[in-house]
Amino acid sequence: MINKIYYFSSPLISRRLQIFLRRKLILRKKLVCKNIWPIDKRAAKLPGNWSGWPGNKQFALILTHDVDTANGHKKCHALIKLEQKLGFMSSFNFVPKRYDVSPELRSYLSNNGFEVGVHGLYHDGKYFNSRKIFQERTIKINQYLKDWNVVGFRSPSMLRNLKWFHDLNIEYDASTFDTDPFEPQSDGVCTIFPFLIPNNSSNGKGYVELPYTLPQDFTLFVLMQEKGIEIWKKKLDWIAEKGGMALLITHPDYMNFDGTNLGDEEYPVEYYIELLEYIKTKYEEQYWHVLPRDMARYWVNTKK
């Protein structure tokens, strides 16, 4: 409840004060939630009739980026080059009504083994104020999905109504998490695996839900002000041990690429590089690295 009160009152206060208050709240809640974050052991339960990942890989790995602002959009090329150099691929989720999304950037991503997704229309909390508002925005979101030829959606700030998402022309949604008590809508789905959201209406078309299972960079490095990636590594190792899906959200907005003048809402991109190198080194040939859309299609096929 405190999370929601903060979120919906945040437009009334300055960004600096928002971050200050969130840091205070999150440190208090971190102690209260230590038994379910960053690891909720209940989330390791295997899906029904589980036969494992393709190629007998130990676990699955999905990298995603939410591009929240125009500043984050400017940093995308640097992030792409970084991942290409290290041999990774990822999905970039854009907010089309908040800033101009470059067609050239989208084309480059699509043509070079990456993926594009829609991250709402505006990065606000009004989508679920009423069914009418959501339906009005759905029309425009579906148009962007069609125009961009993409199949994935993630709601800003992870606010969600999984039943309403059936109005979207998507193959997957990625607006949930196994455990993250620090989000405005803090109820987790308590699994480190994908799952189907069936549609019982006349068209019968459902979608796959892909929860993120590694803590967000903004939470760790901006709000908690962690000075290393130990929490990332701890959670990744646990997911690998349990054979789950390691799905990460990072934001180019908060990454500092030049190594100097670290802003109050920035962290060194070296943290992300360190995580990727850790994965490559410790788990070489042990993980199935896949894009969100391919995971969704795989999951649908395995459940037929």
Structural commentary:
- The structure is a single chain.
- The protein is of the alpha/beta class and 304 residues long.
- It has one domain: Glycoside hydrolase/deacetylase (TIM Barrel).
- It has ten helices and eleven strands.
- The strands form three sheets. Strands 1, 2, 3, 8 and 11 form a five-stranded parallel beta sheet that branches. It has a four-stranded mixed beta sheet with strand order 4-5-7-6, covered by helices on one side. A two-stranded parallel ribbon has the order 9-10.
- The longest helix has 18 residues, at 15-32.
- Mean pLDDT is 93; it is low at 1-9.
Layout of helices and strands:
Blueprint: H1 2-9, H2 15-32, E1 59-67, H3 70-74, H4 76-86, E2 91-94, H5 103-111, E3 115-118, H6 131-148, E4 152-153, E5 172-173, E6 195-197, E7 207-209, H7 217-223, H8 230-242, E8 245-250, E9 255-256, E10 267-268, H9 270-282, E11 287-289, H10 292-302
Parallel strand pairs: 1-2, 1-8, 1-11, 2-3, 4-5, 5-7, 9-10
Antiparallel strand pairs: 6-7
